[in-house]
Amino acid sequence: MSRQSTERSRSVQKSHMSEKQFDAEKQVQIVSFVKTNVAYYERQFEKIGNHAGFAWTFNFWAAILGSIWFGARGMWNWALSFLILETFAIVQIIRGIFGNLATEAWARIEKIEGTLDLRRQQLAAAIENNTDKVDVYRRTVSSLEDAIGGIRSEAQQLEGLGLWIAFAGVIILLLIKFSQSVSANWLLEKRFSEWLSDSSLSTGMATKDYVLSAGFVLLILFATVTHYSFPGVFAWLIEFPTRPEIRLVSIGWVEQFFAFAIQNGEPFFDAITYGIRLLLDGLELIFVETPWMVIASFIILLTWLSAGPSTAIYSAAFLSYMGLLGFWEKAMTTLALLGTAACLSIVIGIPLGMYCARRERFYSFIRPIMDFMQTMPAFVFMIPVIAFFGTGKPAAVVTTMIFGGTPVVRLTVLGLRGVPESVREAAISFGAGKWYLLSKVDLPLASPSIRAGINQTIMLSLAMVVVASLIGARGLGEDVLEALQYANVGQGILAGFAILFCAMILDRIVQGNRK
């Protein structure tokens, strides 16, 4: 029994020593994290950690400094959120006490009074000459005087609301300060827990953090309060201080660049145009020149094999719609144009995505280019396309490729990077080479994502049908454009449904019913 009690006492001593060691290590970590008021934050963190739910604490300095405290601690997401609310409240307070709330109303009165003086002079002249417009001028003068009276009463009401607006701003600011003081310790403890698992996170509290946070907050407050509370005091707060010469010089540089590219790259652009024209003519020969019965039967059969009999029935109904309403030839022209752009985008995009999937630096390089291609309005990049390729179908194909070619690259990269490493390692351990690993493991597992990229490329290409018709592409987009020009609602809606049905058919063929 004495031996058991001795062992038990040793284990208790060891547990006490481990607890003390753990507390000492935690205290060192808190010191390196908070840097100031260590004892206070140690108590608050312990209180928060002992509560399963939200622990009510109060941080005086967080309430006083507000957004500056959160920014200095490195919690910029909360600092910016509180800064927006604080700025709103402070603007209301200063507007209510010092600002002229009726400035806009008095400016309107002044403008109307100028018009009223002119109408009074016209009325006096009409009375003197005894013309027929006397009653018209009297009604005009009377309506202007009534308008001035209404605006003047509105301005007086606004001037009387100043104290109430300031009072509301004070209430909002106090609520914000209370929220900051109550949530500060809880948010800081949460960031401390994240910092323990990821030491790369910034703890804040450096001199540069204080300076950056205070400078940013004061700048935002000064600019916002001055602009909304005292409008017109600083003109540069309203209009960006720019110079027309900079814009003119920039335009000249851009025009010189494109002139140089057009002059020296003509053989290159001619070769691209020839290749696009060759593929486009071949697809137009298949879709447009081939008897409609052959094309319709082929599309229905392909839909049947890919997505099942019910989808094939819908495809037959969609094709009947396009044929009976006279959209068949233009729909086939659209499919040829779309097929050219989609085929080229897929042929270029999938290999490019496969190359980028294992090369992070190259993908980081081309990602901003793809962002530019997707976000830049189509009418902007149509300008250099027309300069390089002229107007017509090749230019429309290039424009469609620029807008719709990026999803297949992105989703190919996403699919290949989503292949589990355990599966790849198992294949490599059984002797799989690079080609076998790519063709038998990576591509089959990434095929759902790749097919989704192909589908998105086709859908985005169809979205460019109407825009492409502006630069000479024929097809269903031409009917929609004509309906827009002449306000022909019926034609535009029917042609739009034809474009929709083309998209649905292609979507079912590409996606199919495979899970």
Walk me through this protein's architecture.
The structure is a single chain. The mean pLDDT is 80. α13 (309-324) packs antiparallel against α23, α14 packs across α17 and α20 (434-463) runs antiparallel to α23 (489-511). The protein is 83% helix and 0% strand. The chain is flat, with a radius of gyration of 36 Å. With 515 residues, the chain is an all-alpha fold. The protein starts with a helix and ends with a helix. The chain contains 23 helices and no strands. It has 3 domains: 35-99 and 165-237, no CATH class; 103-160; 259-511, Orthogonal Bundle (MetI-like fold).
What's the CATH topology label of the largest domain? MetI-like fold
The major pleated sheet works out as: none
Topology pattern, helix = H, strand = E: HHHHHHHHHHHHHHHHHHHHHHH
Low-pLDDT windows of residues: none
What is the C-level CATH assignment of the largest domain? Mainly Alpha
Give the second-level CATH assignment, the architecture of the largest domain. Answer: Orthogonal Bundle
Number of strands: 0
Radius of gyration, whole Å: 36 Å
SS class: mainly alpha
**Terminal Cα separation, in Å?**
68 Å
Percent of residues in beta strands: under 5%
**Helix share bin:** over 70%
Overall pLDDT confidence:
80
